[in-house]
Structures are given as structure tokens and as C-alpha cells.
Amino acid sequence: MKRGIFDTLKRGAENALSNWQLSLIRFIEILAFCALTVLGIIVALVPIFVSLGIHLSEINDADDMHSAMTTLAEQWPVFIWFFAGMFVMFFFFVFVHSYVEAGCARLFVDADRAAGPAATGQKGRYRVFSASRWFAGAREGGWRVFWIYNFAWSVAALILLIPLIPVAALMLAFRGNPAVSAGVGCLGMLIVLLFGIVLGLVTGMWTNRAIANWAVERGTARHALGSGWRAVKGDFGRHLLIALAIIVVALAGSSAVSSVTSFGSFSSIHGHNIYNVVFAPVRMIGTILSWAISSLISSWYLASYSALSVENKP
């Protein structure tokens, strides 16, 4: 039985809200990743700055900034290690997120099955969360989800080279004419950007459906990727409309939060320290609220695709 777009979105929303603990886990994950990123950058950059004789407290004007940037440019090999460390940290984040996603996917699939095929029912029919069940799903599927992410996004990166290589070749061909080369570069980058947005949307749909399919079938990453792609390709309209609807809601939520935190920008406009102090809590609350909304939206997205995966495989 194929459900309509609104029915699927409704099931996904009810599932995500009933198992709100999964959104809380995602929110904690975001907090941890942000804290580790800031700490990692500080721990990596401060020793580099000190070794090069750069002290942030001594940068007071444009000349000091220019001198610091010149010093950094002359010692660029040092930053190879910094970016290598950031890459390792990013890989670690993907690895941890894969286990979080696997646990969430298993629970959303179990909840959708427990709720049954009926469009309406008791309020708590989706409520199946337990820490032991989430950990079981994370242990079973974390490694598989990790490879789902790596393979799908690696394929997307290779596809992105299709418009990128011709743009680079044309810029190189017109390097003797800086104006034409710059024009080709700007237009080409715009085309690559638009192509990348579409590619990212489709790849996100593919990975989400593959993860949901893994939670239903409990097979290998390769099998989940194959069945997920066939499902998206065979029912592209529903998958796309669900993804676009969730993106629209996410953008609306982001705009609402931005309107609240815009009061915090008053300090940057007037440049008074007192405003920085007064409006800092507003900006902090806005950021935390944005992360919370993002966690709930991500849960809704996966729960909706889980409903698509379960509908023909009870």
C-alpha cells in the first residue's frame, strides 16, 4: 500500500515526536561535536601561533594583522598538519554519527511497525524507545552506516568533478585574458554550485533511504545502498517531495530563530561592549534553539523515509 506524501510526513512526525529521546541524542551529539571542534582548533592553532611568535593579544590594527598573515603565509607547511588533524577529526565525527544514525534508524523502523498501517490510532502507538534497543541498533549497524555514508558521498564527489573539470580547463585556456578567465570562473562556479546543491539533495535522499532500508532488512551496506537507490529511482517523486517539504520546514524554522537572534546583532551594529554583554544570552539561546530544531528535523526526515521502507515490508 502506497501512502500519500502528507500521510508519510505525518507518520514521520508522529514517530519522531513520540520517540523524542532520539532527537535529544542527536542534540547532544551536535553539542559534543561543536565543543570538540572548538577545542581541537584551539589546541592545534595556539601552539602554531606561539611557535611562529604570533600573539593574538598584540594584534591591534590592520598593520599587525597584515604582519601576522605574512608570517603565516611564509610558514604554510606547518598548516598541513593542522588540516590533516581536522580531516581525521571529521572522519571521527562521521564514524560516531554513523552509530547514532544506526540506532535511530532501528528505533524508527520498529516504531513504525509497532504503530501498524492504520493512518490513525492511539497517541502512544509509536513509543518504543529504550536505551538498550538504541544501543543494540547502533552496535549492529554503525559500521554499515559508516560505509553507506562513505560510498554514497564519495560517488557524489566524483560526479561533482564532471562540471568542475571543464570549468578549470576553460579558466586555464583563457589564462592569457584575465577578464575572460574571471568571467568563465564566476559563471562556472555558479553552475558547479547549483549542480552541487541538486547532487547533495539526491545523495542525501539516497543515504537516508539506504539507512532506513538497512534498518528494515538488516543486510550489508552494499545491499542497503543498492536497494536504497532502486527505491529512490523507482519512486523518485515521493522521495523528492518529502525531502523538499522537510527542507522548507527547516528553512522556516531557521528563519524564525534568526528573527529572534537578530536582536543580538544590535551589538555589532553599534559596536558597544555593553550590547555584547546584554545580547550574548539571546545569541546563545538562538544557537541552541537552532541546533534543537535541526535535531528534530533530522529525526523527522529519517522517520519519514523509514515509513516508506516499512510500508511494503511489514
Given helix and strand content, the structural type is mainly alpha
Secondary-structure element string: HHHHHHHHHH
Total DSSP E strands = 0
Mean pLDDT: 84
Q: How many structural domains can be distinguished in the coordinates?
A: 1
Largest sheet: none
What general outline do the C-alpha atoms trace?
A: globular
Q: Mind explaining what this structure looks like?
A:
The chain has 314 residues and is an all-alpha fold. It has one domain. Helices cover 84% and strands 0% of the residues. The protein contains ten helices and no strands. α1 packs across α2 and α2 packs across α10. The protein is globular.
Which features characterize this protein?
314 residues; mainly alpha
How are the elements arranged and paired?
Elements: H1 5-18, H2 20-51, H3 62-74, H4 78-115, H5 131-173, H6 178-217, H7 221-234, H8 236-261, H9 266-270, H10 273-310
Helix pairs in contact: 1-2, 1-8, 1-10, 2-4, 2-10, 4-5, 4-6, 4-10, 5-6, 5-7, 6-7, 6-10, 7-8, 8-10
Task: Summarize the model shown.
This protein is mainly α and 314 residues long. It has helices at residues 5-18, 20-51, 62-74, 78-115, 131-173, 178-217, 221-234, 236-261, 266-270, 273-310.
